[in-house]
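Notes to self after the call with IL:
- keep both proteins in one doc
- input above output, always
- annotate only the second one for now

Protein 1:
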Amino acid sequence: MEAGFWHPLDNGRIQCDLCPRDCRLADGQRGFCFVRAHEGGRMVLTTYGRSSGFCVDPVEKKPLHHFLPGTPILSFGTAGCNLACTFCQNWDISKARQMDRLAAYATPEAVAEAAVQTGCRSVAYTYNEPIIFLEYAVDVARACRERGIQSVAVTAGYIHPEPAVAFFGQMDAANVDLKAFSEDFYHRLTGGHLQPVLDLLVYLHRETSVWVELTTLLIPGENDSDAELEALTGWVVENLGPDVPIHFSAFRPDWKMLDKPATPLATVQRARRIARANGVRHAYTGNVVDPEGGVTLCHGCGARLIERVGYTVSGWHLDGAGRCRLCQAACAGRFEAAPGIWGNKRLPVRIGS
């Protein structure tokens, strides 16, 4: 399918304008992401309608703790990525170069119908970077919206401003990976830059209605120092406000970063304490067994508003308006009168032909 966000160059090449990589491609070449290609003087998306698989997950797995808690979400991705993270946890999908890894073709309408049939409240564009399959994601989101299904982007947020408007204009929520708070980390370990991600976060907060949560994967010796965590959480509170939830996840050795140890439980707990001390109202721990790290607390009186065991909502103390039942302080998020009951289940789904 023909893709958008590109322009011709004088030398017969075209430039992709989707992300800050600005790939300049001769005819027949693919971009860094491997899925956007120059064919006959135009840009095409080679993975439109094709997926690496569909699965119904708990929404908490994205992770989202303040968006329709307890509900099932239909998740899918394609292949490729526009970053080069040496620590990628989904490298078998995001770094895939074989198109035969992808499942059968699924139209946007088929994806939306599958979400309805499986009882999902939302669809997640995840597993690999959804920005690189923007046209497919946008078409699926539009089909979902017609059926009353919401859309969630799980993204690294490495995108130019103009396509960001087109992409996030169709999203209801996003979990954005803020991978670190140093340009050195981004340049050395992701092949990208920090500022475009910060710019996107400010745009989402100030100019859209997209519900945003953040995830930072803490890697020992790389982005887990007190100083960096202080700077990151301080920036979030100053620029995005205290209500944006942050998930601090534990790293496990993978892909090209096998020389680092797994992140200790104490590290993610320390990050959560620093965030809360800096004014972040909702800080969580992930990829570890930490019951307290999954609890949503009231910023007014400290009451336990939402309790979780793994991905299961085990306690619910919000009223029908999303307020604390004890002090009536509002909890930021997109809540319904009661949580869903999907729990920890994972359900593979076959779509298409």
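Protein 2 (the one to annotate):
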Amino acid sequence: MINPTTNSNLQKKNNSAKCPDCDFELDVPCDIEKGEILSCPGCGLELEVKKISDGGGCVDLQELTIEGEDWGE
């Protein structure tokens, strides 16, 4: 059995972030990594994790933009 007082991963709280479109307060998992994609439950916007603060607790999100292929047109 794992003792939660010795396992620091179990003590970490979720990060917080706001949707840049609707200002919905998102709970972002503490193990999220830069580049991961989230969906805002408030407006459904697809968001990409751009930056995670050094101490955790705050995540910068940006609207996901999918670039189309350039066929030389």
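Annotation: The beta strands are 15-18, 25-28, 37-39, 46-52, 59-63. The chain has one helix and five strands.
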